[in-house]
């Protein structure tokens, strides 16, 4: 059986004091946590090092929200994978739809970032997902296939022995309009079948998270589906109570 991963993508929120308090509250109340559920927080860059110290030795992992595809050099404002590893990150989100839509992260760039994360010894969380227009045009699977193919071409299926995929339908992000458990399951099953064609073993062990308006009251229904292995949480990861309610939903299913 696959463990659950419940990940908080804090996006561009908070400040030093609030983020430290949120981290401490999650840590104090989660404690060791039930073994089959892993928690992860992904704060903004400036807070990673400090919060990494708070989390050191705990069962809550640290991740970043983005990374440069370049190793080092004259890339003003960018942060490399080795720097993120250096400050204690275990995971890095790549290809979030906000970055694909607003920051020019093409599938090619996302694949390069994914490879950089792996190369630095961390675990990429590859976000994929369709817009409402694409869903209504019945292009959901084609869009996701293209997003996956770019990464598979760059790194091969073996990368998914450690990488995580997050299915985040763009229309469900920050809208309060969650995909139904069955809508999400259908896409997760499709993603797993794509990987299964290349390696059954890797496809069976790989975690696929769902993201998009996950809350304490809809998490259990989503996580109960056979191919949903946890969540990538935005808004509800900014309050300890809400985030821990989602974690508790995962724990209740074990
Ligand atoms: P919300 O949970 O706020 O919809 O955001 C989801 C998301 O984008 C996580 O990466």
Mind explaining what this structure looks like?
By secondary structure, the chain is an alpha/beta fold. The chain has a single domain, classed as Aldolase class I (TIM Barrel), CATH 3.20.20. The protein contains eleven helices and eight strands. The chain has helices at residues 16-30, 48-55, 81-86, 97-102, 107-119, 132-136, 140-155, 181-196, 200-205, 219-223, 240-252, and strands at 4-9, 37-42, 60-64, 91-94, 123-128, 164-167, 208-211, 230-233. Strands 1-2-3-4-5-6-7-8 form an eight-stranded parallel barrel, surrounded by six helices. Helix 1 (16-30) runs parallel beside helix 2 (48-55). It is globular. The model has no long low-confidence stretch (mean pLDDT 96). The structure holds 1,3-dihydroxyacetonephosphate (13P). The site of 1,3-dihydroxyacetonephosphate has 14 residues, from strand 8. 1,3-dihydroxyacetonephosphate binds next to strand 8.
Tell me the CATH architecture: Alpha-Beta Barrel
- Radius of gyration from the alpha-carbon trace, in angstroms: 17 Å
Strands, count: 8
CATH class assignment: Alpha Beta
Distinct small-molecule ligands in the complex: 1,3-dihydroxyacetonephosphate
Terminal-residue CA separation: 10 Å
How much helical structure, as a percent, in the residues?
A: 40-55%
Q: Which spans have pLDDT < 50 for at least 5 consecutive residues? A: none
How are the SSEs ordered, and which strands pair?
Elements: E1 4-9, H1 16-30, E2 37-42, H2 48-55, E3 60-64, H3 81-86, E4 91-94, H4 97-102, H5 107-119, E5 123-128, H6 132-136, H7 140-155, E6 164-167, H8 181-196, H9 200-205, E7 208-211, H10 219-223, E8 230-233, H11 240-252
Parallel strand pairs: 1-2, 1-8, 2-3, 3-4, 4-5, 5-6, 6-7, 7-8
Helix pairs in contact: 1-2, 1-11, 5-7, 7-8
Bound molecules: 1,3-dihydroxyacetonephosphate (13P).
């Amino acid at each position: 059986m696959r463990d659950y991963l419940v990940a908080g993508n804090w996006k561009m929120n908070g400040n030093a004091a609030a983020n430290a308090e949120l981290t401490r509250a999650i840590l104090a109340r989660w404690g060791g946590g039930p073994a089959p559920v892993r928690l992860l927080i992904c704060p903004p860059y400036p807070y990673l090092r400090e919060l990494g110290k708070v989390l050191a030795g705990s069962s809550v992992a640290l991740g970043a929200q983005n990374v440069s595809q370049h190793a080092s050099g004259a890339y003003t404002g960018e942060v490399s994978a080795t720097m993120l590893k250096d400050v204690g990150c275990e995971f890095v989100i790549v290809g979030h739809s906000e970055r694909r839509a607003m920051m020019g992260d093409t599938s090619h760039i996302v694949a390069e970032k994914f490879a950089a994360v792996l190369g630095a010894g961390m675990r990429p969380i590859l976000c994929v997902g369709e817009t409402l227009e694409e869903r209504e045009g019945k292009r959901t699977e084609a869009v996701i296939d293209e997003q996956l193919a770019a990464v598979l071409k760059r790194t091969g299926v073996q990368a998914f022995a450690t990488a995580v995929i997050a299915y985040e339908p763009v229309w469900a992000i920050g809208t309060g309009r969650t995909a139904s458990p069955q809508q999400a399951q259908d896409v997760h099953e499709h993603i797993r079948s794509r990987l299964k064609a290349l390696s059954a073993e890797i496809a069976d062990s790989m975690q696929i998270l769902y993201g998009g308006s996950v809350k304490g009251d809809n998490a259990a229904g989503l996580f109960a589906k056979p191919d949903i292995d946890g969540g990538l949480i935005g808004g509800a990861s900014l309050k300890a109570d809400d985030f821990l309610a989602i974690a508790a939903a995962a724990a209740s299913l074990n």
